[in-house]
Amino acid sequence: MSEPKCRHCKAPLTRTLVDLGMSPLANSYVKPEDAGTACAAYPLHARVCDRCFLVQVEDAVPADAIFNDQYAYFSSFSESWLKHCSEYVQAMIPRLGLNTGSLVVEIASNDGYLLQYFVQEGIPVLGIEPTANTAAEAEKKGVSTRVEFFTQAFARQLREEGVAPDLVSSANVLAHVPDINDFVAGIAEILTGDAVWTVEFPHLLNLIEKVQFDTIYHEHYTYLSLVALERILAAHGLRVFDVEELPTHGGSLRVFSCLEGASHQPCPGRDAVREKETRAKLDRPEGYEGFGPRVEALRKSFLDYLSDAKVNGRTVAAYGAAAKGNTLLNYCGVGTADISYCVDRNPAKQGTLLPGTHIPVFAVDKLRSSPPDDLVILPWNIRDEVVSQLSDLREKNVRFVIAVPDTRVVG
Q: Which end of the chain is more exposed for a tag (fewer CB within 10 A), N or C?
């Protein structure tokens, strides 16, 4: 195979962050009738660019094979995420002076989970969402949605149509973009004057420090730091003027950017994150060394826990048919002999099998009709929300367990 090149600067990718081997697509849930067929698996190898420090995986499969009409992720099934989005809206309206004459565009608007709150405030919105099934749900909430991938060409089309947003929002989408240069060029195309782009993403610093390797999967093409993002934005005439650190998804950044010539002044949050990344050496190769062995140690810890549970006759189930959980389970080689079933609130996932492991997925009520001894919370980023929702299971002596950043009982 030819040596892979960096998505942004095209430098050779010779440094490995972690190689997770072969893995199925994390959101490609299996129909029960296909249980006898092995899932297609693809290399899941995260590399670091030594020139611009963008962490990335290779294009193992075309984007339209991942983001299609059967895409199973609906943002609105997490109450804590909806609260986060409502708070964002209430913060942006006064900060940017948004009103009924403004326009907010969200890229990857999913099921209208965010824009619905702007609609409730009477602020015009436009969602851009490539998956038709989630876009249909957004329309039901009054969120006008275009079913498209966001590209520079599409941004130019919108601008020619007179679309001039005051705010462009994108939460947890930049990592899903195969051509990050084209996407950012599209942002530069659609912004005018003092318009602002806010982009949220899990912070690479937390992925490394907290061994959050399970957030690596094929539809996450890149894993972002501020140092890498600022270099990409600068190449397209954009600049960062503020950064907020958020607790979401195990620790995220919300980056505020604008056109190079806009009037927004630098804020302290930007420099604070720059300094934090410099201390962690994310601006040099040494900051990325030694991650693989820490991931291997986590795998051993989780497998030891499952082995002990089996020896002691404890039944184990899982909560959350999450992509991160599928990375964890497949990397660990776990199957139905280890975890008997999984539950999820999303009806689109219920009645399916997890990719690779073929663990069956049920509605949450399964936990009450057939309670396990242990419940592994796969989306560890919402563990407090899950433990609170399922507090009645404690009366049945169910233990709550997480595997990242280490395997332990949490409730």
A: N
